[in-house]
């Protein structure tokens, strides 16, 4: 007999609009991460994201492993799952449309942009609560542009990626992807999100109760099968789609895919196994991020040293000059540069000589 799990509404964590202090730059790839994975559920409008979150939430509650759920869709009328943070508690989407004179899509985008300015509060709650939960789940609106084109997508994915092992979950409406051209356009969307975020990626082929996802798996595995399906297409797009599909081979090899029915619950265990795999892959992502930020830091230091060297050359010997370092993330400091700034007896280094930070003798005034 089927058992029904009763889920109580959790106490809500509220994000309040407040004036932002300067951004916290202490959070970096080196801080200790919670092991709780976080999934960012994205996909086209109506693909079944919210129903998928509902199914997953119910499944985890039935296993006594409740998730921490965050709704980022400001326009949803009713949520079918218990939510811990809801964007609608912070931003009134209808008011945003009215005040900024926007249509529904612009309203959703702007509401999310406004909410993302308070994302540090969301992160604080997540960091505090993650260890008591098995999974952190984000439900998002159907506007994929939010994650590909708007600033909020970058803020959300980048900061989450440094807080928890984060995985992007792309929900595909399998029943509406039986046409190879539609399938391809969906895959291109998914691909753009993967390359924008570079996070581990799971493709959820949803609505498998309507149609088995076997055809899509075949298309991804074997290009000739996909080409055969395309040959039935008479559309002028088919040549373009053929060449695109070759380019997507690399994308397919980098992602996990799983067939799910959010209606019946089929495939949820396989999905959780894919999350475990994504959590392992995440450490590669973090190592890449660390390398990039170290590289940026090095470049910034080199730029500063170049500037100092240049100014020293222009200033002549024995003079003092004031300069403001134009580092974008730091407030402007004024340094008095003494004659012997290089610590090499008043001599400027030859061009190409590397001057290390510790060699600089700067008095902060
Ligand atoms: N048959 C079937 N229908 C589903 C499944 N998942 C979702 N649906 C239906 O698809 C429709 C859209 O589902 P939602 O969960 O609202 O989709 P969404 O992606 O959250 O939509 P937006 O938030 O508007 O972008 C609803 O009518 C759901 O009942 C599924 O696995 N099988
Ligand atoms: Mg939804």
Overall average pLDDT: 82
Bound molecules: guanosine-5'-triphosphate, magnesium ion
Shape label:
globular
Order of neighbouring strands in the sheet with most strands: 3-2-4-1-5-6-7
Structure summary, number of beta strands: 10
The number of distinct helices, counting runs of at least 4 residues, comes to 11
Uncertain segments:
21-30, 327-365
State the secondary-structure class.
alpha/beta
What distance lies between the first and last C-alpha atoms, to the nearest angstrom?
Answer: 77 Å
The helix fraction, in percent, is 40-55%
**What sequence of helices (H) and strands (E) makes up the elements?**
EHEEHHHEHHEHEHHHEHEEE
Radius of gyration: 26 Å
Largest sheet, in brief, is: 7 strands, parallel
- Give the percentage of residues in beta strands: 5-15%
InterPro entries: AAA+_ATPase, Gpn, Gpn1/Npa3/XAB1, P-loop_NTPase
Domain AAA+ ATPase: 35-182
Biased composition (Acidic residues): 348-365
Biased composition (Polar residues): 17-32
Summary tags:
three-stranded antiparallel β-sheet, single chain, binds magnesium ion, alpha/beta, 12% strand, binds guanosine-5'-triphosphate, 44% helix
Description:
The chain is 44% helix and 12% strand. It has 365 residues and is α/β, with parallel strands linked by helices. The strands form 2 sheets. The chain has a 7-stranded parallel sheet with strand order 3-2-4-1-5-6-7, sandwiched between helices. α4 packs parallel to α6. The radius of gyration is 26 Å and the shape is globular. The model is unreliable at 21-30 and 327-365 (pLDDT under 50). The chain binds guanosine-5'-triphosphate (GTP) and magnesium ion. Guanosine-5'-triphosphate binds next to α1. This is GPN-loop GTPase.
